[in-house]
Amino acid sequence: xxxxxxxxxxxxxxxxxxxxxxxxxxxxxxxxxxxxxxxxxxxxxxxxxxxxxxxxxxxxxxxxxxxxxxxxxxxxxxxxxxxxxxxxxxxxxxxxxxxxxxxxxxxxxxxxxxxxxxxxxxxxxxxxxxxxxxxxxxxxxxxxxxxxxxxxxxxxxxxxxxxxxxxxxxxxxxxxxxxxxxxxxxxxxxxxxxxxxxxxxxxxxxxxxxxxxxxxxxxxxxxxxxxxxxxxxxxxxxxxxxxxxxxxxxxxxxxxxxxxxxxxxxxxxxxxxxxxxxxxx
Length: 281
Known about the structure:
Radius of gyration: 25 Å
Number of strands: 0
Number of domains: 3
CATH superfamily of the largest domain: MazG-like
Order of helices and strands: HHHHHHHHHHHHH
Shape: extended
Distance between the termini: 53 Å
């Protein structure tokens, strides 16, 4: 049987990655990669997965999940070469974590009967942080890059800014640092919009940037109170904009013209037409 035929396994994928990274017979490009150079691709592939889900395309989702899995395998192979850890340790660690975080599923009978009690997740995660700190202390590596631990320390800095804003706010809300309902959040949004307007009037670019950031942060808070994912919401609006603009291009093309040969007033009217047609479907 042809060695390239038949359903491949995770073991095959791991072997392929090892071959690609082989210092003598591997791929020159793959040999040169590091954690740092691969990280952007890892983030990109996660977004590709989200996009396939958003579009409801399961064929694309299968492919994109494979691309994302490749990223995990890639990082694990680099770590194996450095004798830090390998893929089996990655799989073992996440399996142990899932079991540890779900004693109501995997625990003894009394624990399963107790179910998920108040403060359950926070207690388990606090225990994990304590264990991780002890591990770092034992291995001589720093557990924190800051002098003291903070409730916000485990919110990754590399998250998309809107997503990170929501996570930071959610963490603070757990200890009572939050508005009780949406009304004061909306009021804060209006306040930040006024402050942005004042900054724009001043012409101070640094102040404008700062106030714009404040407005985005409070908009993320509005989304959190409305139980909306701001990233997903904005992705939807981006798709809507692209769809309607393509329709404008199509209508202009039917007239033998391009957007460059049109003007704002005409394109705005076509935009309204596209919007109306979408709503009437």
